[in-house]
Design brief:
2 domains; globular; binds 5-O-phosphono-beta-D-ribofuranosylamine; 8-stranded mixed β-sheet; alpha/beta; Rossmann fold
Length: 216
């Protein structure tokens, strides 16, 4: 049983996909706490619907980013989590936060990193004229959207795509690769060697995801 703390800022659709994976018995674990930096994040409501404890921590109550993150670290440590899942969390973490949970923080980003890091990755792909983009689940490192890659999914960019249509197409893959990566983590199948992640006994070399999805 893996114990997860999730950080969100908004809609919470990835959080929901993970909660469904747990509810359906595919992921052997639980989310003990969902924290948001936005009071009205829809994801907080979703968490409550699944019976998960939630907390809104207002950045305005803190003098600086470090104080905010220290508060978060204290709260999260009390949950004794195996994994911290960033699911649309729109604040850059301080080094203090990242150092507090070595190799225990994962994120999903809507591009094939290292392409299109940062905000509005889907729009960046369209503006660039890329023909493929996708999504990436990765460990969180101190440089934004740059940590070791666990799984990526390739998604085509179509001529008439808008930011919305492309984002929707990518999101469908996000909802598969994020629960899958968390399932592998919960099964202790993920080996991290420097920047390289190997999922033990996974199938590599196929499209659209590498490694191949097993359960989602
Ligand atoms: C997703 O596109 C994710 O890749 C990015 O933020 C968005 C969060 O969406 N990091 P949701 O809140 O999970 O619906």
């Amino acid at each position: 049983m893996i114990n997860i703390v999730a950080l969100i800022s908004g809609r919470g659709s990835n959080l929901k996909a993970i909660l469904e994976g747990i509810k359906g018995g595919k992921i052997k674990g639980k989310i003990s706490l969902v924290i948001s930096n936005k009071r009205d994040a829809r994801g907080l409501q979703i968490a409550r619907e699944y019976g998960v404890k939630t907390l809104f921590v207002n950045p305005k109550d803190f003098e600086c980013r470090l104080d905010y993150d220290k508060f978060l670290v204290d709260i999260i440590k009390r949950e004794n989590p195996d994994l911290i899942v960033l699911a649309g969390y729109m604040r850059i973490l301080t080094d203090y936060f990242i150092d507090s949970f070595p190799n225990k923080i994962v994120n999903i980003h809507p591009s094939l990193i290292p392409a299109f890091k940062g905000l509005k990755a889907q729009k960046q792909a369209i503006d660039f004229g890329a023909k493929y983009t996708g999504c990436t689940v990765h460990f969180v490192s101190k440089e934004v959207d740059s940590g070791a890659v666990i799984i990526q999914a390739v998604v085509p960019v179509l001529p008439d795509d808008t930011e919305e249509t492309l984002s929707d197409r990518i999101l469908q893959m996000e909802h598969k690769i994020y629960p899958q990566a968390i399932k592998w983590l919960s099964e202790n199948r993920i080996k991290l060697e420097g920047r390289k992640v190997i999922v033990k006994n996974a199938i590599y070399g196929e499209l659209p995801t590498n490694p191949k999805l097993e359960d989602f």
